[in-house]
Amino acid sequence: MKTVKQVADLTGLSVRTLHHYDTIGLFKPSKYSESGYRLYSDEDLKTLQQILIFKELNVALSDIKEILDNKQLDKLQLLKSHKQLLILKRDHLNDVISLVDKIINNGDDKMSFEEFNINKIEQTMKHNHEFLKNYDKSLYNKDFDYEKTINYIRENPEIIKLMYGSLENYNEILKTTPERIKNYKNIKSQMDEIDRELAKSQNKDVSSPEIQSLIGRLDEFMVEMCGVGFKQLVKAKEYNKEVLKDPQKLEEHKKDLESISKVFDKEFGKGAYEFRKKAINYYLKSQS
Rounded to a whole number, what is the largest CA-CA distance in the chain? Predict the structure, then answer.
């Protein structure tokens, strides 16, 4: 058993901090001496180790307490998650070091804030990817290509600025993905129902109030699920017109659209994709 002073010396925490952890019920000693002094066991120290790891990940003390109080928690999986998040944190610091090296080597006294923001976006994407892997296997895409996505953003940062206002705003929206993903299946189910209604209504004019009401609801769900609506997606489409002047990229884009159209029509019915596109175009024109 160790005294509070010994634990303080071992961990680098102050005695006052350990007393505070005891007071709030986060980290209590297993025993007390006859004189009333706190005594900590090896098991207590293992708990303190987990607390310190969570603190390194900027988790609030109240949230750490909730996690530790959850007896159903898989401790091994928890440690694996700790490790992955720490690796992401390390990678982010390595990116910052690389940026500083570029400044030193180039003799440039101005840091590239754009590149710095893109590095933060990459780390957030990796964090979200890891969250999905542990949260819901059905939503986890092991083939997601970080490098391809990040390289596209590096080459075309303006498209992100058009859609989200700035790279920083985009990163902030990405950070909310874990919360939004918890409601993903419910939102996706409602969006699918709207798309089924649209597919059944292909005999109607896209300007009809019924069709436009469905598109309006679809737009609201898009914002809730993705952080942007149809208006922002059209801005991206307009920007892509310049990017797609490259014949190779244009061909790749056409193949992607063809694939998306086929998958959509297979699920909702022949002509559903094209009808939906026309209805969205009318919706956006009426909004401008």
Answer: 85
